[in-house]
Design a protein that fits this description.
heterotrimer; A mainly alpha; B mainly alpha; C alpha/beta; A: mainly alpha; MetI-like fold; two-stranded antiparallel ribbon; 77% helix; C: alpha/beta; eight-stranded mixed β-sheet; four-stranded antiparallel β-sheet; 12 helices
């Protein structure tokens, strides 16, 4: 178990190093940091002076080392557009993105599991077929179109919900939350649904397929032969066995949700990291792009690691094979 | 999950035409196609979209990419069937006096061109890397597959956005419409190659150890020839499935990039660009500027997805 | 004669498919008395397992019981509402499946699975059910049951898992146990232990046992009576000594000839030519006629009904009383 965890941690560090190299390459070679700082009438001597002071004349490896050490301390340089440290920009935007991503994931899991279980158990009902159709449409409609559709319906036509922003937020230390005010909650509804819809269809399809698969297994047949109630079989045995892979996928998807929030945040002008990133791409703000890449990768790698380890806790079979292999 | 299995058809088929294409047409596949009405509708719609895109210049009432043909006097006209409609603008016009239907036809052309070219590029890259990884094995294999593993955990849209941002930074002002087009294709290709590489690698590993490959090596056929002539045709089924599903994904990715302002510019809009432009007029009640490009995009993706789903089931009944 | 625990009369089971309706069981009748072990033997696809599933009410659509009666200690149990047949399953009829590796839910401790079953059928408290579960595990021969009760299925060997499955089948003291190929998936060395266990449990508790198998050796060792099935019908049924020593039906003769014995080393094993027809292609008349060495015209037209021959009963035109007097 320990060896397994250790190996996974080492792998994760390897991936982060690789991403770090890419981020550094972007930071160093894709944009000329000097030309972003200076104005047109800066003399060549001044430019050289700035180059030297930024350490751009040092060997590449030294520069990478410096970038790496800085990154470990969450120092990602200064944004070209805002003239502010990238880390403080990201920190300011992090709560908005995390709150949105968590709410979207919770929505996707709850709705996806309920719909998936229903359509597996009542396979031939009209509602189950409707869910299937919805899931195909959910996978086919691009996220931004869903967002626009919701805005048109609930903000423009009905005027029930705000179409942009986060509403009123409350400060809790450095964290800002929109979960404590009515306007904040109202502002969260549409973005969370938009962001979660794709994951919801994914989870629904997965739950349905897994559940059907599990219902065909011998141990379910044996459970029926033991005379257990249908409820105990469906919601005790079948659901528990279904949820193991589903939780893994949903967990792994959390990273994707954060990355996909780029689109949702743009549609709803949600002041999170994704919106910051899109603006950075539009304005060629390389330090922000590199830092965002590192941040998202860190989140991805951490989630993968946690899910891998959690999985072994949930599934007793895996636990013993691993301890045997180790 | 996605590692589709090569469908091995029974070998005792007397009149099976040679080549994977003939085999595909010969068989149950065409039969199951005729059985599924939904798939036929989807195929017809997909075909229709392609035809509309190809003959856009003949069908459109104006060339929306040519500023000389746009007149501000015609701006923001509602669709023809509403009270404020004006001929010949069937679906209305946008704020620059651009006919929405014409813009959709030309935008469709851009979207499909980027999608198809992106898929071809991704396929070529993935197949090449998969063949190399599978055939040579060892260090080459593990380096390529490690990269694939890492990349697969990141969503395509993030990679495409990064490629786009880097290209913008490197090219700066030299980035005109055509080079944006190229950048989009590269961005999509780099985001979607992994699945092809994995599939091809898997089947190369299987085929590599079979007797006929050893025999071909013995009579001195060069390795690239063996792979292209003997191994590759076996993977064509799954590759076709991946390509179809990826076409839908590539079109979504392009549309998303353009919607986010990181794709095709306003002067040469794709469907995604049109939606971004139209989105600004939604609050003013001018819904048609965003609605019709949106419907076109959704219809296109839905029909391609339906085709892809059917193709996957038809080629591999076990996955159903 | 006392009332049999299980009485099956003219059972028919159909599977409705898009192309045709396939009859998997066609007019099967047999009884099992208290404490008796009935072996059901035949090739794969003969309908042995389907018969077992029909008795316990686990034929799933597109299959259905299309005719006949099943009585458990005098009460009809076919066509009961789902909730009522569910109460009988596990309580009055226990079932053991072929593969102990897949019969247990891998995510639940074996104790929890036993306690769950006990509490479904009795109103014992959690702790009483746990004590009972430990007793059951001890009874089926699991060492240190108070420790192993908290183990997960993957921590048990195949034979031990089958013992757990048996414990689950008997936990509510059923009148009837249906064992569907209980030893097929096990090592040969373990098979005998499991068979002995089933036999002992049947004797100790007076439970009737229906033992489905394709292994004639197991039948000869364990059963009181045996039914030979072929293409969804019972070809021959009778006391195991008679049927093994003196099989009447040509198919049963072939089957007994296929058992290797130590005594008859010089004799070649008899082989039955051909294979059993698929359900979609059962020939008219006697289903065995294309493979039968004694076939005559009537076999190809008329379906033979069971005919009493002493303690045995055989479905074959060769034993028609009229025919015998004529011969």
């Amino acid at each position: 178990m320990l060896a397994f965890t250790l190996r996974r941690v080492l792998q994760a560090i390897g991936v982060m190093l690789a991403v770090g190299v890419i981020a550094f390459a972007m930071f160093r070679f894709a944009g000329d940091p000097v030309s972003q700082i200076v104005s047109i009438d800066t003399s060549a001597a001044q430019r050289a002076e700035i180059r030297r002071s930024l350490g751009l004349d040092d060997p590449v490896l030294v520069q990478f080392g410096r970038y790496f050490i800085n990154a470990l301390q969450f120092k990602f340089g200064v944004s070209y557009q805002f003239r502010l440290p990238v880390s403080s920009l990201l920190a300011e935007r992090l709560p908005a993105t995390l709150e949105l991503a968590i709410c979207a994931t919770v929505f996707a899991m709850v709705a996806g599991i309920l719909m998936g279980v229903y359509s597996a158990l009542r396979r031939d009902t009209v509602l189950a077929k409707l869910f299937q159709a919805v899931s195909l449409i959910g996978i086919s409609l691009p996220t931004f179109l869903i967002g626009i559709l919701l805005i048109y319906l609930f903000a423009v036509t009905l005027g029930w919900l705000p179409s942009f922003g986060r509403g009123e937020v409350v400060k809790l230390g450095w964290w800002t939350t929109g979960l404590l005010t009515v306007s904040g909650l109202k502002a969260l509804i549409m973005p969370a649904i938009t962001l979660g819809l794709f994951q919801m269809t994914l989870i629904m399809r997965l739950v349905r397929a897994e559940m059907l698969e599990v219902l065909r297994t011998d141990y379910i047949r044996f459970a029926r032969a033991r005379g257990l109630t249908t409820r105990a079989i469906h919601f005790g045995h079948a659901l528990k066995n279904t949820l193991v892979p589903v939780i893994t996928v949903a967990g792994l998807q959390f990273g994707s949700v954060i990355a996909f929030s780029i689109i949702t945040e743009t549609v709803f002008q949600w002041p999170g990291m994704g919106l910051l990133f899109v603006q950075a791409v539009q304005n060629v703000d390389i330090p922000i792009m590199a830092a965002y890449l590192l941040m998202v990768s860190l989140i991805f790698v951490t989630i993968n690691l946690v899910v891998d380890i959690l999985y072994t806790v949930v599934d007793p079979r895996l636990r013993s094979t691993i301890s045997r292999a180790a | 999950m996605s590692d589709a299995v090569v469908p091995h058809r029974s070998e005792d088929h007397p009149q099976a035409p040679a080549g994977w294409f003939g085999r595909a047409l010969d068989s149950d596949i065409l039969y199951s196609f005729r059985r599924s009405r939904l798939t036929m509708v989807a195929a017809v719609i997909t075909l229709l979209f392609f035809l509309l895109a190809i003959f856009a210049s003949g069908l459109a009432v104006q060339n929306p990419f040519d500023p000389a043909q746009l007149q501000l006097i015609n701006s923001r006209i509602a669709p023809l069937w509403t009270a404020d409609g004006q001929s010949p603008f069937l679906l209305g016009t946008d704020e620059q006096g651009r006919d929405v239907l014409s813009a959709i036809l030309y935008g469709l052309r851009i979207s499909l061109a980027v999608g198809v070219a992106g898929v071809v590029f991704a396929g070529a890259l993935g197949i090449a890397l998969g063949l190399v990884a599978g055939y040579f094995g060892g260090v080459v294999d593990s380096v390529i597959m490690r990269i694939a593993d890492v990349q697969l955990t990141f969503p395509a849209i993030l990679i495409a956005l990064l490629v786009n941002g880097v290209a913008k930074s490197l090219l700066g002002n030299r980035l005109d419409e055509m080079s944006t087009f190229g950048v989009l294709i590269i961005a999509i290709g780099l985001s979607f190659w992994v699945q092809y590489a994995r599939t091809v690698r898997g089947s190369v590993m299987v085929e590599k150890n079979k007797d006929y490959v050893a025999a071909a090596q013995l009579i001195g056929l060069p390795a690239p020839k063996i792979m292209l002539r003997h191994v590759l045709p076996n993977t064509m089924g799954p590759i076709l499935v991946i390509a179809t599903i990826n076409l839908a994904l590539a079109i979504i990715t392009e549309a998303t990039l353009s919607f986010l302002g990181a794709g095709m510019p306003d002067t040469m809009p794709s469907l995604g660009t049109l939606i971004r432009i139209g989105n600004n007029y939604l609050f003013a009640g001018e819904w048609w500027i965003v609605a019709f490009p949106g419907i076109a995009l959704a219809g296109l993706i839905l029909s391609i997805n339906l085709l892809g789903d059917w193709l996957r089931d038809a080629l591999n009944p076990r996955l159903r | 004669m006392t009332q049999p625990v299980l009485s099956v009369r003219n059972l028919e089971v159909e599977f409705v498919t898009r192309r045709a309706t396939l009859r998997a069981i066609n007019g099967v009748s047999f009884d099992i008395a208290k404490g008796e072990v009935l072996g059901v033997v035949g090739e794969s696809g003969a309908g042995k397992s389907v018969t077992g599933l029909a008795v316990i009410g686990l034929i799933d659509p597109p299959g259905r019981i299309s005719g006949g009666e099943i009585e458990l200690s005098g009460t009809r149990i076919d066509h009961l509402p789902p909730e009522e047949i569910r109460r009988i399953r596990g309580k009055r009829i226990g079932m053991i499946f072929q593969d102990p590796l897949t019969s247990l839910n891998p995510l639940y401790r074996i104790g929890d699975q036993i306690i769950e079953t006990i509490r479904t059928h009795t109103n014992l408290s959690e702790s009483a059910a746990r004590r009972r579960a430990i007793d059951l595990l001890a009874e089926v021969g699991i060492p240190a049951p108070e420790k192993r009760i908290d183990g997960y299925p993957h921590e048990f060997s195949g034979g031990m898992r089958q013992r757990v499955v048996i414990a689950l089948a008997i936990c509510a003291e059923p009148e009837l146990i249906i064992a569907d190929e209980p030893t097929t998936a096990l090592d040969v060395s373990v098979q005998a232990q499991i068979i002995t266990l089933i036999k002992r449990l049947g004797r100790d508790h007076g439970t009737a046992v229906m033992l489905v198998t394709h292994d004639m050796g197991v039948i000869a060792e364990t059963c009181d009576r045996v039914a030979v099935m072929y293409s969804g019908r019972i070809a021959e049924i009778g006391p195991v000594q008679e049927v093994v020593r003196n099989p009447l039906h040509p198919y049963a003769r072939g089957l007994m000839g296929a058992i290797p014995t130590l005594a008859g080393e010089d004799k070649r094993l008899v082989q039955i030519p051909g294979s059993m027809p698929r359900l979609s292609a059962i020939p008219a008349g006697c289903p065995f006629n294309p493979r039968c060495a004694f076939v005559f015209d009537r076999c190809r037209v008329e379906r033979p009904e069971p005919i009493r021959q002493g303690t045995q009963s055989v479905a074959c035109h060769l034993f028609e009383p009229a025919k015998e007097t004529a011969a």
